[in-house]
Design brief:
Structural class of chain A: alpha/beta
Order of helices and strands of chain A: HEEHEHHEEEHEHEHEHEHH
CATH topology of the largest domain in chain A: Rossmann fold
Helix content of chain B: 25-40%
Strand order of the largest sheet of chain A: 2-1-3-4-8-7-10-9
Number of domains of chain B: 4
Number of helices of chain A: 10
Distance between the termini of chain A: 56 Å
Number of strands of chain B: 23
Strand content of chain B: 15-25%
Oligomer: heterodimer
CATH architecture of the largest domain in chain B: 3-Layer(aba) Sandwich
CATH superfamily of the largest domain in chain A: Thiamin diphosphate (ThDP)-binding fold, Pyr/PP domains
Shape of chain B: globular
Radius of gyration of chain A: 20 Å
Largest sheet of chain A: 8 strands, mixed
Number of strands of chain A: 10
CATH class of the largest domain in chain B: Alpha Beta
Number of domains of chain A: 2
C-alpha cells in the first residue's frame, strides 16, 4: 500500500504559535520522507529542548524528546547501534549553537550518518524571548533589555570549519526548496546539517518578508566540493545564500567501525568474530 | 613460612616501592603473573601518583595458598628503589622481614629488625644497558631468583610484554633480567618458598583486575555498545572494552565528554542495544542530566562508577567510597535507579552481568559502584565457565532470574511488546510491576514518543496532577518490584548467630572486614557481617533480619561523612558506631579489628571475658 503524508503524522497536533516557521519545517520533513518512501518504523527522531524540540512529538516515528543540547550525541548512539535506521537530530539555535554547540564538531569528525535539522529563530521563544547565540547585536530581548552586546554566531562557517560533510542553509518558510534540500540531506551518506531560518512570530527578529528580500539561492554553478568558495559565500550577509554550500563523501561512522572490526578480526582471528571463549583467553 | 592470619602454610606479601615512571607496577604485575601460575592465590594492591613521572608509586603482592580477601597489613619482603619509597614503607615491613634496597639510592637505619640485602639496581642496569631505565626488570630478576622461578619463565614474560617494542628493547630487558637474577645468585639465597608453575592454575584461574572483570562481565552479559570518556581510575574498563568490542562485533566509541557518552548510550539503548559507560565521580556528576533522562525514558543502561577521592578533581588515583549519595539521589527531581556495589575483583564480573539483567528487566539505569582499590587490584579468580551462560526467556519472571554466579550465569533482555498485539500499544502502560513492554525501532506499528517531559501512558506530554502522580508511582513501583525480588535472595551476611555486634560494610571493604572477622573469632570476639551488593533499593526484611538480636551495629566506610550510614539510619532507625576511613587508601583488617575490639569491650563483655 502506498504511503501518504498521514503516515508520517503522529496523533498529536502541533502546538506552535500560529504562523511559526516550525510548521513549515515539519511539513517539509514529512514530505521529504514520503518522497523518499522511508518506512516510519525505521526512523528515529531525537530532539532537544525549545520550540523546535517539539517537532519529534508530531512525527509518527520512534521519537525521543531528550534534554537541552544533547540531541546530536543521542542520535549518534542510535545510529551507531543500528545503522539501518534513518536518524534525525532536531534542535534550535540555543540547543545546537549554545548549550550543545560542543557536540557538533565531534559528530562531524566521526561523520555519523544522521541528518541534523538546526532550526534557528534567533531567540529563546519557548521561554518567551531571551537572547540566543544568533540574536542580532543591538536588539532588545528579555535578558538583553538594553540591547544584545555580543556578536552573532555565524553557524554555516562553523560547520564548514568542522568539515561537516553536508552543509546547507534553507528558508523554513519556503517549504518547496526546504523539502528538496532535506531529501538531499537524508540521502547523503554522512553527517548532514540543514540550518533552517525559521521566523518566530511571537518574538519577531527574523521576519518572513524581510528574510525573503535578503535570501538568495546559491548560484547554479556553485561548486559543492570547494570549501573555500563555500566559506566565502557562507560569510556573505547581503545576500544571505540558501542551498547546499558543501558536500563531500568520506567514510561514515559505520564504515569506520566496520573497518576496525575487519582489521582486528582479520589480523588476529582469520577474519572471524571472536567467540566468548576466545575473548576469555585474552585474559588468561 | 607460618603466617599470622590463619592456618595456611603460605601467606606472605611483597612490596616494591619506587618513583612513578620507574616501572615498579609493571615489574610487580609481571611477578604477580608468575605467582598466579602456581597453585597459590594472588592479590595485588597498587598505589601510584597522579603525575606522569615522579611521585611515590608502589605495588604490593600477597600470595597465599587459599583465597585472599585483602591486601593484608605488614609485608614480608620489601624492595625499595629510592629513599622516599624506603621512608614511606619501612614501617610496614614485618619484624624479621626481608629488605632489598639500592645502596646507591637508599640510606637505611642500622637498627632495623630485618634481613637487609643491598643490590645496586641502578648500577647493574646502567652497566648492561647504558641507561637507568629497566631497574624494575633487574628487580624482577632478583625476585625471580629469590623465589626459585626458572629463568626461562621470566624471560618469556619479558618477551610477551615487550615483544612489540622491537629487538633492542627486548635485548636490553633480558640483559637487565639476567643481571638481577645473577645478583640474587651471588647472595646465595635459598628460596624460602618456591613458586613452581602448576598446570592446573592456568586452566582454572586467571589473574585480572576489577576493571578488567567489569569489561569481561559486560561482554558476557551481551553488551555490544560502549560509549565513554577517559577518566582515572575507570579508564582501564574503557580501554579493555574498546579493544574487545570490535572483536565480538560490538561498537566502542569515545565521545567528547561524559554527557555525550551517556547520551550515546541512551540512543543505543533506545535502538535496542545493551549499552554501558564507564566513569568516575566527576564524570558521573556530568552525566546527571542524562541519567535523569534515562530514568524518565525508562531505558536500560549500565553506568560503572569507579570511585576515586573527591570532591572536585580530588585524588584521581586514590580510593574512596564517596559517590553513594550522588548515585542514589543525585539529579534533579526524583528519578529511580538501582545501585550495585561489587565487593571483590571476581564480584565485579558477576555484578556487572547482574546490572545488565536488572537494567533490562526493570527498564532503568543501573549504577555499579566500584572504586579505585578494587578496579586496579588484581586477583586470581576462577575462570568463569561461559558455557554456563543461559539466555533466559521473557516468560521467566524477573524475581526468578538467578544472581549470576560461578555455577550459573543467566542473561536477561528487556520485555518486548508482542508484535501481534500492537493495536492500542501504550509505551508507558501502568502495569502491576511497573514495567511496560517496549518496542524497538524497526518494528512496524511500534513507533512511540518518549521524552523527558512528564507524559501519560502513551508518551504524550502531560502536566496534569493525576498523570504526574500516576507516572511517578509507576516508575517507583519498579524499585518495589525489585526490592521484593531481592527478599527472595539468600541472606547476604555471615558470622555467628550468637553475635551481639553486627558490622555493615559495602563494596570493596568486604575482604578486609571478612579477615577482621576471622581474626576476631580467633581472639574470641564474635560479630555478624552484612555486606549488601544491592545498596538501593535495599532488601529491607533481610536487613531487619540481620539487625535482630544485635546490641550494637558498626558501619565501616571509606568516606568522610558516612554516606551509607545516613541511609541505614534513616531507613532502620538504628544508631550505629561509624568507622570512616577517608585517607585515599583502603582500610586494613587490623584497623577494622581494632575498632571492633573497642566496641566489643563495651557491649559484649561475655565474649571479651574469654580473651
Amino acid at each position: 500500500m502506498k504511503r501518504t503524508l498521514q503516515d508520517y503524522k503522529s496523533i498529536i497536533e502541533p502546538v506552535w504559535c500560529p504562523g511559526c516557521g516550525d510548521y513549515g519545517v515539519l511539513t517539509s520533513l514529512q514530505r521529504a520522507l514520503l518522497n523518499l518512501d522511508i518506512a516510519p518504523e525505521n526512523i528515529v527522531t531525537v530532539s532537544g529542548i525549545g520550540c523546535s524540540g517539539r517537532l519529534s512529538h508530531f512525527l509518527n516515528t520512534y521519537s525521543l524528546h531528550g534534554t537541552h543540547g544533547r540531541a546530536v550525541p543521542t542520535a549518534l548512539g542510535a545510529k551507531a547501534a543500528n545503522p539501518n535506521l534513518t536518524v534525525f537530530a532536531v534542535g534550535g539555535d540555543g540547543d545546537g549553537l549554545g548549550i550543545g554547540g560542543g557536540h557538533i564538531s565531534h559528530a562531524a569528525r566521526k561523520n555519523v550518518d544522521i541528518t541534523y535539522l538546526l532550526i534557528d529563530n534567533q531567540i529563546y521563544g519557548l521561554t518567551k524571548g531571551q537572547t540566543s547565540p544568533t540574536s542580532p547585536i543591538g536588539v532588545k530581548t528579555k535578558t538583553s533589555p538594553h540591547g544584545v552586546f555580543e556578536d552573532t554566531l555565524a553557524a554555516i562557517p562553523i560547520f564548514l570549519a568542522y568539515d561537516v560533510s553536508f552543509v546547507a542553509r534553507a528558508n523554513g518558510v519556503d517549504t518547496k526548496s526546504l523539502t528538496e534540500i532535506l531529501m538531499e540531506a537524508i540521502s547523503h551518506k554522512g553527517m548532514s546539517i540543514v540550518y533552517i531560518l525559521s521566523p518566530c512570530r511571537t518574538f519577531p527578529l527574523l521576519d518572513a518578508k524581510g528574510l525573503k528580500a535578503i535570501l538568495q539561492p546559491l548560484p547554479d554553478d556553485h561548486p559543492r566540493d570547494i570549501k573555500m568558495v563555500a566559506m566565502e559565500r557562507a560569510y556573505s550577509d547581503r545576500p544571505i545564500y540558501t542551498g547546499v554550500f558543501y558536500q563531500v563523501q568520506k567514510p561514515t561512522l559505520e564504515d569506520r567501525l566496520q573497518s576496525v572490526v575487519k582489521k582486528v578480526c582479520d589480523k588476529t582471528n582469520g577474519g572471524k568474530k571472536y567467540t566468548i571463549d576466545k575473548v576469555l583467553n585474552s585474559f588468561t | 613460612m607460618k603466617n599470622s592470619h590463619s592456618n595456611c602454610d603460605v601467606d606472605f606479601a611483597i612490596r616494591i616501592g619506587g618513583e612513578g615512571g620507574e616501572g615498579v607496577i609493571s615489574a610487580g604485575e609481571l611477578f604477580a603473573q608468575v605467582a598466579a601460575r602456581t597453585a597459590y592465590h594472588v592479590f595485588t594492591y597498587i598505589t601510584y601518583p597522579a603525575e606522569i613521572k615522579g611521585g611515590f608509586s608502589m605495588i604490593q603482592i600477597r600470595i597465599k595458598d587459599g583465597k585472599i580477601y585483602s591486601m593484608g597489613s605488614l609485608v614480608d619482603y620489601l624492595i625499595t628503589f629510592n629513599q622516599q619509597a624506603y621512608n614511606r614503607t619501612i614501617k610496614e615491613l614485618k619484624p624479621g622481614g626481608t629488605l632489598i634496597y639500592d645502596p646507591d639510592e637508599v640510606e637505611i637505619k642500622n637498627d632495623i629488625n630485618a634481613e637487609c640485602y643491598p643490590i645496586k639496581l641502578t648500577k647493574l642496569v646502567t652497566e648492561v644497558t647504558g641507561s637507568k631505565l629497566g631497574k624494575n626488570v633487574v628487580a624482577l630478576g632478583v625476585l625471580g631468583y629469590l623465589f626459585g622461578v626458572e629463568f626461562g619463565i621470566l624471560e618469556k614474560l619479558i618477551i610477551d610484554r615487550y615483544g612489540a617494542k622491537g629487538e633492542d628493547i627486548i635485548k636490553n630487558n633480558i640483559n637487565a633480567l639476567k643481571a638481577g637474577y645473577a645478583s640474587g645468585r651471588a647472595i646465595n639465597w635459598k628460596p624460602k618458598i618456591e613458586l613452581i608453575a602448576d598446570p592446573d592454575a592456568k586452566e582454572h584461574y586467571m589473574l585480572i583486575s576489577g576493571n578488567e572483570a567489569v569489561a569481561l562481565g559486560a561482554i558476557a552479559a551481551g553488551c555490544r555498545f560502549v560509549a565513554g570518556y577517559p577518566i582515572t581510575p575507570a579508564t582501564p574498563i574503557f580501554e579493555s572494552l574498546t579493544d574487545l568490542m570490535p572483536k565480538v562485533g560490538g561498537r566502542a566509541i569515545q565521545l567528547e565528554d561524559e554527557i555525550a557518552s551517556l547520551s550515546a548510550c541512551i540512543g543505543a539503548s533506545f535502538a535496542g542495544e545493551k549499552a554501558i559507560t564507564p566513569t568516575s565521580g566527576p564524570g558521573l556528576q556530568l552525566m546527571g542530566e542524562q541519567l535523569n533522562l534515562a530514568s524518565m525514558l525508562e531505558l536500560p543502561l549500565v553506568i560503572v562508577d569507579v570511585q576515586r577521592g573527591g570532591p572536585s578533581t580530588g585524588l584521581p588515583t586514590k580510593t574512596e567510597q564517596s559517590d553513594l549519595k550522588f548515585a542514589i539521589y543525585g539529579t534533579s527531581g526524583e528519578a529511580p535507579r538501582v545501585i550495585l556495589a561489587p565487593s571483590s575483583v571476581e564480584d565485579c564480573f558477576y555484578q556487572t552481568i547482574r546490572a545488565f539483567n536488572i537494567a533490562e528487566r526493570l527498564q532503568m539505569p543501573v549504577i555499579v559502584l566500584s572504586d579505585q582499590s578494587i578496579g586496579y587490584r588484581k586477583a586470581t579468580v576462577r575462570i568463569p565457565d561461559f558455557t554456563k551462560i543461559v539466555e533466559v526467556d521473557s516468560s521467566i519472571p524477573t524475581d526468578e532470574i538467578l544472581i549470576p554466579s560461578p555455577e550459573r550465569i543467566e542473561i536477561a533482555r528487556r520485555i518486548e511488546m508482542d508484535p501481534t498485539k500492537l493495536n492500542g500499544y501504550k509505551r508507558f502502560l501502568d502495569t502491576a510491576d511497573g514495567v511496560s513492554p517496549i518496542t524497538t525501532p524497526g518494528l512496524s506499528g511500534g513507533q512511540y514518543l518518549s521524552g523527558g517531559l512528564e507524559h501519560d501512558e502513551t508518551g504524550k506530554a502531560s502536566y496534569l496532577p493525576n498523570v504526574h502522580l500516576l507516572m511517578m508511582t509507576k516508575r517507583f513501583k519498579k524499585l518495589e518490584t525489585l526490592s521484593k525480588a531481592f527478599e527472595k535472595n539468600p541472606p547476604e551476611y555471615e558470622g555467628s548467630e550468637d553475635a551481639k555486634i553486627g558490622v555493615i560494610g559495602w563494596g570493596s571493604t568486604e575482604g578486609a572486614i571478612r579477615e577482621a572477622r576471622l581474626l576476631a573469632e580467633q581472639r574470641g570476639i564474635l560479630f555478624r557481617h552484612l555486606h549488601p551488593k544491592v545498596l538501593s533499593p535495599l532488601p529491607e526484611r533481610q536487613v531487619r533480619h540481620f539487625l535482630a538480636g544485635l546490641k550494637q551495629v558498626i558501619m565501616i566506610e571509606e568516606n568522610y561523612t558516612g554516606q551509607f550510614a545516613h541511609f541505614i539510619k534513616a531507613k532502620f532507625g538504628i544508631k550505629p558506631i561509624e568507622i570512616h576511613k577517608s585517607e585515599g587508601v583502603p582500610i586494613t583488617p587490623e584497623e577494622i579489628f581494632t575498632g571492633i575490639e573497642k566496641v566489643a569491650r563495651i557491649v559484649d563483655e561475655a565474649h571479651i571475658a574469654r580473651l
